[in-house]
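#dry-run=false #mode=assembly
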Amino acid sequence: MLRFVLGRVLVLIPTFIGVSIIAFAFIRLLPGDPVMLMSGERVMDPERYQRIMHQLGYDRPMPVQYFDYLIGLLSGDFGTSIVTRRPVVQDFFALFPATLELSFCAIVFAVVLGVPAGVLAAVKRGSFYDQAIMSVALVGYSMPIFWWGILLIILFSGILGWTPVSGRISLMYFFPSVTGFMLIDALISGQSGAFRSALSHLILPTIVLGTIPLAVIARQTRSAMLEVLSEDYVRTARAKGLPPSRVVGLHALRNALIPVVTTIGLQVGVLMAGAILTESIFSWPGIGKWMIDSVSKRDYPVIQGGLLIIAAIIMLVNLIVDLLYGLINPRIRHH
Amino acid sequence: MSEVTAPDRIVQSARSARRSMIVEFWHYFSENRGAVIGLVVFGLLVVAAVFAPLIAPHAPNTQYRDSILLPPAWMEGGNSAFLLGTDQVGRDILTRLLYGARYSLFIGIVVVTLSLVSGIILGLIAGYFRGWIDIVIMRLMDVILAFPSLLLALVLVAVLGPGLTNAMIAIALVYQPHFVRLTRASVMSEKTRDYVVAARVSGAGPLRLMTRTILPNCLAPLIVQATLSFSTAVLDAAALGFLGQGAQPPTPEWGTMLAEAREFILRAWWVVTLPGLAILITVLAINLIGDGLRDALDPKLKRS
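#status=ok
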């Protein structure tokens, strides 16, 4: 087992180095040089330009610069934002809980609806339910979520007036951020209505962000379930006279869920991409909006640092999923 | 006499074998109702895109300043000259949607071609030669896959500058690893088969082995992946347009149209609803075709 874990971790090292090279190269691939970019529209006299170039180390050979960059990363230095003048890491961790809360709700939404829907479709294969569920899943899978979000806003915020249009909580509530998760903080604050307000802000973004994972999970559950249902041991269980609910729930589902767990883990990348769009529609103050704002403000250190941190998080989650998969499925471990 | 006809007969039988393969493929594909519907819708989109200048009632960028934000013709206040209404500067929405089909299909074709060709080349090289070149290529692909596709495309566009061409290059680069992995995996499993060994023994060089002998037998999964990439390319390009980093206004690209119309969502639903619906229908049609192709080309599912 230790060898399995170690092997998986070692494979990640070259990938991480590659990712860091991309992040490093990114700022140097931009037209113009970094100092000119930071100075913006202002004119800079050549002497000062040389001094800053030297100060920031841009006049040294590329490999030396990369090595310094890597050392900086290892000591937690991911650069400083041009706009806020704060370290990128600090901004990242201030905004990350918002994205984490949204992503968590979205994945719960997707699993809670997607797994039963997939099971139902597989058990009633070819029936009206199957066709309806799979049609809806295909539409969800094909959905431009930025448009889906706008439609939901038109319906639920515009016409029905049930949900707020943007933000994480109504402005009338104010309390210190303890955990960074609005739902928990609202509960801790004890202010009446705060939790309700936070929840109502969360509903539409959750649906929008959860739609594609929901469709993917439903489709994956169905096909995994169909595969398992045709196995001999399921037939045996049926032949023994076990009630169908027991065969499906206990024998089949448990094995069908193994590939589904991997699918759920792989949704992290989808969620991060979706967060960019979802947060931008709902003005959700998280990582996705932070990244797109940085792109439009040309805040290059933030783009660079954010890209690296997000890639690192995704790699880490994929590693955990990989290890979990090995834990549930010994065949992988000994392969 | 027979010496002359023998090769002819071989060619003929190869031809009829290919024909029967196509017939068999069509048999399985046409059994899938969704796939056929998808194909029909896609065909209509292609017609709309190709003949947009002939079908469209107006020019895509003409602004009718006296008819701003007109609702669709069937609604109160609608004008039959603007069947699907007009946008915030008085441009005909139907016209812009028809022209938008050109952009979306063009984006899909370019992205898939770029990523498919480069992916096949890299995958063939990696799978055929193995060794250090394989390791280098595959680690590079792992690095690309470590980033969420839309984020990487967004950052690449930030480097290259916003615009449709750069968005397409960025998206193609992001999709390429899937093709490399698929090609490599099939090449590796085909390489040791008897027919490849036979071709090698009879003197075929590496280039011929890779492209003429092995590649045709790896095509099925690549075709399915290409179809799926086509639909995600349309989606991602629209998303980049929506975020202001793809096609730039006044280009009638569907995502860009949505972004321009965002502030009118509560006043004029048609300005945002229709371009999004166009994206959804296009992506849905292509995904339906993709599902049909997968079922028809996958020998594992054929038995039933």
